[in-house]
Amino acid sequence: MANDLTSSQVERQNILNNKYALKKIENHLRLGGLEFEGDSWLTKQQLMTLFDVSDSTIEKYIANHGEELKANGYKVLKGKKLNEFKSLHGGTVNDYGTKISILGVFNFRATLNLAMVLTESERAKEIRSRILDIVIDVVAERAGGHTKYINQRDSDYLPTAYTEYSYRKVFTDALNDYLDMDGRHKYAIYTNKIYQLVFKENAKEYKQLLKLAKNDNVRDTLYSEVLKAIGSIENGLAHEMKDKSEMLSRKLKPLELNEIINRLEINPYLKPVIDDARTKMASRDMTFRDALHKKLEAYIQTVPETDFDKFLGEASRSLEEQLSDPEVLEVLKRLKDR
To answer: What does the pLDDT look like over 282-292, one tens digit per residue?
Structure first.
């Protein structure tokens, strides 16, 4: 996670989409505010005091980041809504008096958003630093103390990993039956080619980036969407190898298999699957594992709120907890019996 939130809207939004971190941040900062419609709101005047900045400074950031701030809770009250807001607070709002016809207000989320972009305020800088500390703590705490296997907390992980294992077996059998290449190293060579096709890194590069140990299995750390992409390619490759080998009445040469793999990279049917896998890996690893896949940097997007539920929420569980669930075991049994 970048230390300078002022420069990345994606990283700002990743924090603002993490409701688990927001709750802890709110409890820690206790910024207060005026209660309205189930939320706490700060006026521009209150923000000027909080951040020790001028009215014109706040207005500048509303002008430059208006859409982002509105998406995170900033709103302009007028008419009936403004009268309701004022009536809850004695008919006046701070120093604005009774004659105001419009009033911009920030809920907690929008206030944090402003603190993340406000460079003229030392108080905002302090808040940004504390936000980053709390987010790191919350992710680690809810992931059970480490994030190496946070991918396994997804309820889709186990069924997907089990299915992918069967595709892996189909592929390794095809390498054995249809590829004219000696030695067991061919399995590692072509596994790396698939990894590079899907996420542009070989196993060694991936392990270094995630700081995995020598004996850690790469696939144990992959998200279910990445495993699905790999499984699709492995299964398709196995069938293409078989068809090509039977057509030629011989095993394939490595160069011939390489040509098949090169064509897959531009296959329009696979592109959506590969793009989705790259986006999920790049975006989630930056957010949950503090790991930047430089070769996938163009695929980084904001992590949606649903992903925080998937990996940090009450429904997310460690692999050990999932394996002790009779319903999960029944799903795996059905997959085995297919």
So the answer is: 999 999 999 99
